[in-house]
Each structure stands twice: as structure tokens, then as C-alpha cells.
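REQUEST FORM: STRUCTURE PREDICTION
Request ID: SP-0412
Submitted by: Lab K.M.
Chain count: 1
Length (residues): 408
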Amino acid sequence: MTEKEESFDLVSMKKKALEQLLTGKSLYGKDGAFAPLLKHFLESALDTELESHLDDYQRDQGNRKNGKVSKKIKTNAGTIDLETSRDRLGNFEPELIKKRETILADNLESQIIGLYSHGMSLRDISAHIKDMYDTDISATSLSAITDRIIPQIKEWQSRPLESLYCIVWMDAIHYKVKEENRIVSRAVYNILGITKEGHKELLGMYISASEGASFWLGVLTDLQNRGVEDILISCIDNLKGFSEAILTIFPKSEVQSCIVHQIRNSLKYVASKDQKEFMRDLKTVYKASSLELAELKLDELEVKWGKKYSKVIESWRNNWEKLTCYFKYTAPIQRLIYTTNTIEGFHRQVRKITKTKGAFTSDMALLKLIYLAQNNIALKWTMPLANWGETAQQLAIWFNERMKLDLK
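STATUS: Completed
RESULT:
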């Protein structure tokens, strides 16, 4: 095409684009005007890259333009057939569209990862791309695109952490994963913390075959290796050996077991006809205004229900120290720590994204989606917790040298 013909062609493409824009037609897809404009831009940019590559040194080596090469590129404007120049020696490495690349980076790829992060299956993403852009992308190609975030995940998992976290909630969320032609269970261990400035931060995410205190010990060791020196208050469920694992790594941490978990476990062993009355009496224990009153109400609970539900009362007494840590603090701190509702709320948001998956194809497929989901959730964690200024001052009083405020 001559320079004059190319100029005329570009004018006609711009005219078509303007007409489609004014009439409300889509610029994208099979008949959209954007595809030929993008084709013109890409071919021109690649030719400019090649001209820049063919400097005096390359020409002295005998390198020159050597005909044209065709290449199909998938974009959000559809599949584009590019005709670009090649060099004689074959040492030209374009930056805009690399060799063997078939999908325009930072264009369609970012949209694919965005759709994937909101829980769409690879099959649904493929259908969506076909409907929107008249471009076919196989599930294998889509999987390869989402795999490009794996280095980001590994970097995120090993990033340095702050030396102090005021409150940390630890809990696991369970999924099914395909392994060697069978479906197995996986526990995803999540650690959600509050910084000294009152911001939420997911400290880590780990996958194991099952939930256990021994694995939690390894998780806590990893936090320590990444820079965490102190956790003021650790909020956990009632997993056996969990508090001991925490105190092994962070011996100064206060451990608060979740009251709600304890209540749920208790009601499993209370007859349905007694549950309403038993709960009314139990509420006077964990809602007491002081530890002393709570102990008195537990004694009253045992007098009334001890013979019928001795094991339930025994469980409360055996776990009493871990269950009642919150009584020593003021109401704002109590509301934060007496349950693991904070991290369970995070898990509910994650499940909204993952609920469409019956079973994940691999551990990494599971990790990819939860990582992308937490990225989206963390976008809302820009502000400190409500009334954090008051809460931080109270923590500074309780923990003295361990919680120093940056006051000038």
C-alpha cells in the first residue's frame, strides 16, 4: 500500500468509527471499526520497533528487512491478522507483541484475569470473550493466562510483614480439590491482622490436607520468619492444641478462643427441647459485665444443668481461661476479640467468589482464585477500623511498651 493509499484508508477507518459511535453501534467485535484501527496502529508500531532495531551495527552485520510475516493476535477488538516486517538475521525481539505471543498483553489478558477473579469459570470466560469480541480462546490458553499471576502470589506469600500486629484472627476455610482422579479436602489457613494504625491486612494464606495445630505451628513460624515479632491478642477457634502452638512462637500473646464456636459446640449436645432455655441461661455467662460475675453465672448454670449436661459444663470449665480473656478489656476491644466474626466475614466474601466451583483442579487453582478474591476485598480496606483511635489508646495502656503510639 502506498503512503497515499494508507492515508486514505486511515481516514476511512476513522470515519467508520465516528459513524458507529454516533449511531450507538459497538466499535468492537467482528464488524467494529476499532479492529482495523488497532491493526493499523500495531503494524505501524512494530515496523517502528524494527526500524529502531536495525541500527548501524545491525546493518553492518548484514541485517535488513526481509519480507513480511503473518500473525493472528487475539484482542478485545476481535482476532486481528497482522502483516509485519521481519529481519534477515532473525534477532529482532519486539516488545509490543513478543514472539510466539498470540494474545495482546495488558489488553484482553487483564480482562480475563478480572473475570476469573470474580468467580467465572474458564468455560464461561471463553463464551463471554466470544460474545463480546468474536474471538475464540481455549480453556488451555485461559488457564495459561491466569497462571501468569503465580509469581505474584509467591512474592505476596513471602513479603515482609510488620513487627507488631495488635489483633490477629486465625481460621481455616475448607474446599474440595481434584488429586489423582479423586476428590480430596483442603484446608486454607488464613491469618487476618490489624496493624498498629488500625488497618486490616491478610498476613498469609496456606493450604494443607487438613486443619491441625501442628500445621498452624508451621504457619506461625513463617509469620515470625517474615518479620512478625509480637501479636498482642490472638483470636482463634477451639481447635485442640491451637493456643499452645501460638504461645510457642509468640509467648506474650493473649489468646482468646471464639465464644460463638464454643456455643455451637455446646448446643450439639443439648437436647432440642432444652436449647432455648439453656441458651438463655448460658447468655448470662458470656454476656456478664465482669469475669467475677461470669464465674458466678457459670456456677449457677452448673447447678441447674450440670447433672443433665455435665460434659458441656466441663468443656466450658476446661476452656475457661481461653474463653474469658476478653473480660479484662473495655467494650470496644471486647467486641473485636470475643468471636472470630471478623475473619469469618472475610471468608463469607471469599465464598461468594468460590461458590461456583464444585472442586478445584489443583491446589494452585484454589490458591489463584482466593488470592485474586482477597485482592478485590482488600481494595475496601483503605480506612482504619471505626473508633480505632480510642481502641489504640486502650491497647497502649494495657500493653505498655509493646504498643507504642506514634505521638509527637
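NOTES: Residues 1-8 have pLDDT under 50 and may be disordered.
Reviewed by: T.R.
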